[in-house]
What we know:
The complex is a heterodimer of chains A (347) and B (270).
Chain A: H1 4-29, E1 31-36, H2 40-58, E2 60-65, H3 70-76, E3 86-89, H4 91-99, E4 130-142, E5 165-168, H5 174-187, H6 194-203, E6 208-210, H7 213-222, E7 227-231, H8 232-236, E8 245-248, E9 254-263, H9 270-280, H10 283-293, E10 296-297, H11 306-311, H12 316-319, E11 322-323, H13 327-332, H14 334-346
Parallel strand pairs in A: 1-2, 5-6, 5-7, 9-11
Antiparallel strand pairs in A: 3-9, 4-7, 4-8, 4-9, 4-10
Helix pairs in contact in A: 2-10, 5-6, 6-14
Chain B: H1 11-39, H2 55-62, H3 64-97, H4 103-111, H5 118-131, H6 138-162, H7 166-174, H8 179-207, H9 224-234, H10 238-262, H11 265-269
Helix pairs in contact in B: 1-10, 2-10, 3-6, 3-8, 3-9, 6-8, 7-8, 8-10
Amino acid sequence: MISRRKALQAGAGLAAATALGAPSILHAETATLKITTWGGKWGDIMKATVLPAFEKEFKCTVSADQAFPFMPKLQTSSKNDPLYDVFHTNSNEQWSALIEGLVMPKITAKEVPNVADVYPYAVSDKIVGVSIFTSAIGLGFRTDKGLTQPTSWKDLADPKLAGVRGGYIIPVNSLGQCHLMMLGKIYGKGLTDLDAAYKALEQLKPIKLVDFTGQMEKMLLSGEVIEGVIHDSGVYRYDGQNQPVDFASPSEGVMALEQVLNVTPGSKVKELAFGYINYMLQPDVQKMLAEAVWYSPANKKVKLDAKYDAKLLTTEAKVATLIQPDWKWYNERKDDIDARVTKILKS
Amino acid sequence: MSVPNKQPFDAGRAAYLTLNFALLFFLLAPIAIVLIFALNPTPYISFPPVGVSLRWFEKFFGSAEFMNALWLSLWVAGCVLVLSIVIGGASALALARGNLPARAFLTAFFMSPLMLPAILTGLALFQSYLLIGIGRPVWGLIMAHTLVAVPYVIRTTLAVLHNFDRRIEEAAAVLGASPVRVFFEVTLPLIRPGVFAGGVFAFIVSFDQFPVSLFLVVPKGETLPVVLFNYMKFDLDGAIAAASMVSILLALSVVLVLEGLIGLKAYVKL
Lengths: 347, 270
């Protein structure tokens, strides 16, 4: 027969073991989803609102890496145990990652049900993974410097803009790469006419170059640049701040700057990764992020407030104006293109 | 009564002073520019300033992300300071006194982290850490920083040891001091300026370290230079300048504290 003392001792021991073991039991049940994400306003909203809500709903922990560069880190990690489960980047880098087998070629409604509700561009043959948002790449300009609103990409070559026009360090920036291809389209035979593009690039000198859109925004705000290549989001996010900047969609068309999510094939939490992408495509999440950073949502069912709806690409007709370049083609020639544009813009 | 020995003020002295002021201006002017940007209230970097405001310092100190990064950088730099002094000091003593074979090769080997591009060092360590399955722990970051900081301590300690009069140690030994006592009561106090000067460099190198940290930091565990680098991509505003001023003042504080402990003149002897 067990004495009362022994029973109490056993009970105390069991309680202690449970209390000590509880954190590890909980930890074993809590999966960690490793993602990449942008910083700035996007990062603030993600960390403050979107990710905590996702963690609560899916009972997981999200480890969000905001420290560039993402691609070299993913390349270095093992494919069977990748550093990231969900890779968020632009299309050009997603295509580079696909070539190396680091991401999945396509994400369908089978894995992510909300994919069924996205615009065609979000899952077109130009996309690896699925696009959750897009911006339109066009021309940002100062409204207080006596400029007429640009109507064509060719307006950037106006001699009056010498030294105060803005572009990107093409080897490291997708807007710069898009702009280069657009130069081939408007001055040559098409997006792939690199000879015409190089010639047109030469005519844009002198031009101020940056490596990221955040810096282009600041150059426009400070007046260091009075007209430059930028996405609509980079200008519209200053709405209501009384800043003398505006965005123009050139008549020849706007290039797409897609925010693309993809899953790494070696991810140990694939279901959670797909769940995250599905969550990011939910209309309420899409609306919150779209209105915070002025990105055009990929989900057709999203209804934005009037002032956002007026400017962003929220209908089939509007998104049809987006030009999606062939990043597979571009990446195959990237080394040669980088060498050539560096030579042009360095001199 | 003796007359103070004053140097005559001639063209040579004038040229010497002008050159020194020009060099000081060249070195300090960028810091003044950073301060101007940090106090300028506009939401972008611009010159000339339109006013004076502490908003960017408020943003810096009010940001959890910046503060976490600042404390992590200070913690890592402090650990690197201690480790570098111990490892660097011991290595220098071994190289100077150890009668080691291939001494010149070993010296070059220990100094080699300075010759390699730091970003390659960081990438190589990142690959190594992943290969052995340890991930990216903070102690891995500290070891990486120590790797690139130790050469500074070795270099400054070797310089002090070069002029060291060993007869003082011999005298202490002859008078009955044990080797351990000779080291702690004779050798160490005399080489302390070199060791601590190297420690100052090690602290600053670690605190400002970017390329090595780039691949070794983890989410919510980024050092200040990495956070600033990523911040600049999205928000190029005065907060960067405010963070830079804080970093400069911190580094200056470390130097002043060590000057109080060791004495600035000791560095001049090097």
